[in-house]
# Entry
Amino acid sequence: MVVESLLDIAEVAERSGLAPSALRFYENRGLIASAGRNGLRRAYRPDVLERLALIACARGAGFTIAEIARFLLATPDDTKLRAHMAEKASALEEDIARLTRMRDGLHHASTCMHEPLVECPDFKRTFESSADHMRSGTPDPSLPN
Amino acid sequence: MVVESLLDIAEVAERSGLAPSALRFYENRGLIASAGRNGLRRAYRPDVLERLALIACARGAGFTIAEIARFLLATPDDTKLRAHMAEKASALEEDIARLTRMRDGLHHASTCMHEPLVECPDFKRTFESSADHMRSGTPDPSLPN
DNA sequence: CTGTGACTTGAAGCGCGGTTCAAGTCAAGG
DNA sequence: CCTTGACTTGAACCGCGCTTCAAGTCACAG
# Structure
């Protein structure tokens, strides 16, 4: 018999809302580890759920599986990784700003009466700064041929 | 002869920062329209740049190409779509909250001295509410790239 | 007329994040 | 013993958002 306090993969799947295939996939990629087997079945320590919550959040924040794997191995002396994290944090800052603008734009869009919607000046204004970012580094000043 | 004020695909590509292949792809999917040809070459009206900014923003906010296509066809009487937009707006609200939490977590992580980082209680606390969200079952949204 | 060279097309390929599938293994039950 | 049924594996496949490729077409220079 195997230790009792461990969770079967099926149970972890149910409680985490992830498919068993996803759990195996994560294990394969080094995001989680199984603590043993019960016959063929993977058995996980309960704290895997906590880790899965973290992974879900990171995924939601746009991190790739590979990045998350690296972050999970972090130790205090890994200064490179720390720098990387700080970098990511400020990237998130920008993402948050973008999403906020988008939210406001959508909010307006859902009640605006312009036809078509795309031509609504208020709606357009939402994206002015994004357009600026696009124009960074354009050598050509004038339009017509 | 073709109208003069139009932009060649190459110019649009340069000014938008997108690859020509991406522009063709978008056109193929109905996100943008070319206003004519100059020989074989697509010619775009200048306002396509504005639209591309909008598309970039929407993409960044996690909308799929197909969704964006639908949104761009919106008219004021399309109440279904309006509802959909409002829905998306509040989904963004959640995304923003999640990203904010993640940013704070990363911020702390980049200076925390726990070994391993994953065991830091402060860091963990960042994800408590996410864990709750897992138990209530959620069809995980995903962000790009 | 013949390059040249940037475009055109549709189709195939890629990286990501998984899911699905075929085939195999195990523990328990009859 | 044999069956059942949930798991195991590696490999193939999927949808997305493009990119790349092969082959073709065009305008213009010489």
Q: What stands out?
A: The two ends of chain B are 41 Å apart (CA to CA).
